[in-house]
Design a protein that fits this description.
This protein has helices spanning 24-31, 36-47, 83-89, 97-102, 122-130, 145-151, 206-228, 233-238, and strands at 52-54, 59-60, 67-78, 108-112, 135-142, 155-160, 169-174, 178-180, 183-185, 190-193, 197-201. By secondary structure, it is α/β, with parallel strands linked by helices. The protein has one domain: Glucose Oxidase, domain 1 (3-Layer(bba) Sandwich), CATH 3.50.30.40. A hairpin with a 3-residue loop joins strand 10 and strand 11 (197-201). Helix 2 packs across helix 7 (206-228). It starts with 23 loop residues before the first helix and ends with a helix.
Length: 242
């Protein structure tokens, strides 16, 4: 895919034009999981990786959505000029369009935003959908949620707000490390999200996490089989994960 920058963000504020890529079969293995965020969170616990954010904090616009893809990041900050002055200038300083321009199908846009101010609306979501993104994670607010649902572009955010970021937010960098609910996310990191919450897995640990996930899946399948076969409660309570 040809990537053309708009100049909205200075080139020296774009960390990378090409994300380091996880193997397609590894991404497919994550996408095939049943209890997606729960299994990933458990595996990260075993490996000492802080990864999970509950859905009570980052709420999904579509509770039925589930995604697993690599992070494109955008860093937003509060604009330091009066709103009236920004409106008069008629120049939006939101620049996540540059992240959309760099997207590959299956990527996930991850935005460090501002609480109570929308970092994403219908136009941005539509561009992301057209580029093949799976959805977005926003540590901040979004709006036009009905539109996001209608086009099948799920977003996990701290909340919804009618207050536009066009005159209140400035995108300062693309594809640099961002902090989402206290967790650092780097470009290319694995993002999984479902109705239960969101997990961020460092790119370098994605294979390790999947190895643990596979073991946990085998354990849970065995336990469910024991329950179906009528195993006693004491036997179930004393079983250990291997």
């Amino acid at each position: 895919m040809v990537k053309t920058l708009t100049g909205k963000i200075p080139r020296d504020k774009i960390g990378t034009l090409e994300l380091p890529r996880l193997p397609a079969e590894l991404l497919s293995a994550y996408r095939a999981l049943g209890d997606l965020s729960g299994l990933v969170s458990d595996a990260c616990d075993e490996l000492g990786i802080a990864c999970g954010v509950p859905a009570a904090v980052l709420r999904p616009t579509d509770p039925g959505a589930r995604i697993a893809g690599q992070a494109l990041t955008a860093l937003n900050r509060r604009l330091d000029i009066p709103v009236a002055e920004a409106v008069a200038a008629k120049v939006s300083r939101l620049g996540e369009i540059e992240a959309h321009n760099l997207a590959e199908p299956g990527d996930v846009l991850v935005i460090q935003g501002i609480e109570g101010i929308s970092s994403m609306g219908a136009i941005s979501a539509s561009i992301g959908k057209r580029q093949g993104e799976l959805g977005a994670i926003v540590d901040g607010a979004v709006r036009d949620i009905d539109h996001q649902r209608a086009i099948g572009y799920p977003v996990w955010s701290r909340g919804a707000s009618p207050v536009t970021g066009k005159w209140r937010i400035e995108t300062t960098a693309i594809n640099v490390p961002v902090t989402i609910c206290g967790i650092q996310v780097r470009p290319g990191d694995l993002v999984v999200a479902d109705e239960v919450g969101v997990c961020f897995v460092p790119l370098s640990r994605a294979a390790d996490v999947m190895a643990v996930v596979k073991r946990l899946v085998r354990y849970e399948e065995d336990r469910l089989a024991q329950i179906a076969a009528g195993a006693s409660v004491p036997d179930l309570a004393n079983a250990k994960r291997k």
